[in-house]
Write a structure and sequence with these properties.
heterodimer, B: 0% helix
Amino acid sequence: NAGVTQNPKFQVLKTGQSMTLQCAQDMNHNSMYWYRQDPGMGLRLIYYSASEGTTDKGEVPNGYNVSRLNKREFSLRLESAAPSQTSVYFCASNRDRGNYGYTFGSGTRLTVV
Amino acid sequence: GESVGLHLPTLSVQEGDNSIINCAYSNSASDYFIWYKQESGKGPQFIIDIRSNMDKRQGQRVTVLLNKTVKHLSLQIAATQPGDSAVYFCAETRTGANSKLTFGKGITLSVRP
């Protein structure tokens, strides 16, 4: 039982490049989330998917897109990376919205140069 | 707007002592609270949760106390160990159809040998 798996763990991009961060969970959870974590800023919600087939913007969605591919997978795409998107990205999932605790992945450390 | 905050950015304790980490929340409608632990280079890990119909909940070496009157949450760690060194986050939400967790910025617990 792996929980929440994120790939890649590290990535360096040049400004303007695109990439997709992968996230998969094997706990049959309905809800999935993407956060970014910056020093002194805590965890900020980028996008979330309350259930399969739905996605919604969070606190900081600009510059990102998401796809809830199926119940297990929720990907985050940067179409044109900017240095301001240098951060650590965490994917999380839970049984049902905020009504239960979240399980987090181990993160993707992204640097945009 | 509503927010979750922590009183102190850092806490240093002697190994073997008890630790108390405090959190203030401002949304009086919140009814579900969680403490997370984040070790360096890892994702946040669920420690313990409490719902608003309880004042206290105990886990293994950890206790969460909820004071709804003053909107205060605390995490007590008994016999603090070096492995407890991490950043601790509180999170809160009002459960329901549109529920999402709101995270505090975190406090660093440093355990002195």
